[in-house]
Amino acid sequence: MNDDRVERLLRGYGLPEAPLALDRRVLAQAERILARTRARAAAAGIAREFANALGFGYVSYVVDLVTATDAEYRVDLI
Amino acid sequence: MGGLSSVMESDSSDRRHVDRNRDRGAEAHGEEAAFTELYRDYRTRLHQYALSLVRDREAAEDAVHDAFLGWVRQLSAGKTPRQAAPYLYASVRNRCLDRLRRRPEIALDDAHVELLAAPAGDEERIRLRQALNRLLLALPEEQREVVVLRTWHDMEFAAIAALQGTPVSTAIARYHYALAKLRKELEAHE
Fold it and tell me: Does pLDDT of B88 surpass 70?
């Protein structure tokens, strides 16, 4: 037996399936987080429309200007 | 005229803000689908990677869970990392190493985790699976990591070295040491 054969032997194996409980846990929590994001966006939209109707559209413009952030790459270091 | 154009500009700017919020809502729906796809693409690989690092089912699941939710939080804050794979692998690795710092690695005899799945009908691999699984788990942590990433995750040595924070030559050497060890043990086994 040589190293190539060991390599080929290993590569022929597949990976064990991830548990379904993990799928449920991750997907349910992700859905909750993204639903909160949607709700926040909807509430902000309504508040903005209301402010615009009252003639305070410049306020939301300034808020957008100040809070807009660029996407960035970040890895959480613990 | 200047007044009218400034009103029109303000109107279109207001509409842009409203549209942006509507877009954000639609984006979140799209993000949910994109996240589910991302999760399906990486779940098996990251789960095996975490298992190989911590040799403990529960800790591996927690690491994968936390890494994916970290990604979702970045997404919902509008800060999607540019590339999914480097982020997710680094995130799982950090969480596993943190866990190992807090609690010592589980003893080999108590590590009841499977890193390999033998293809149905492949007698040789079915016969050797248990022994190989144990040999893999018995490898030093950093060698085991290189073998797993190189063999089942198709990762280049440069990417593995970047993940481990070592020179590429070290990653290559670890891989070859591990293969030699596995070969020797397999010969003894057969």
Answer: yes
Q: How far is A45 from chain B (nearest CA, A)?
A: 5
Tell me the chain A residues in contact with residue B46 when contact means C-beta distances shorter than 8 Å: 18
pLDDT at B89 over 60: yes
Let me know if residue A6 belongs to a domain.
no
Structural domains for chain B: 8-103 (1.10.1740), 122-190 (1.10.10.10)
**Helix pair angle (B2-54, A20-53), 10° resolution:** 170
At residue B177, the pLDDT reads 96
Question: How many other C-beta atoms are found inside a 10 Å radius of the C-beta of residue B61?
Answer: 20
A23 touches chain B (CB under 8 A): yes
Structural domain includes residue A8 = no
pTM, two decimal places? 0.77
CA–CA gap between residue B76 and residue B32 (Å, rounded): 10
Chain B nearest C-alpha distance from A22 (Å): 6
Question: Is pLDDT at A48 greater than 70 in this prediction?
Answer: yes
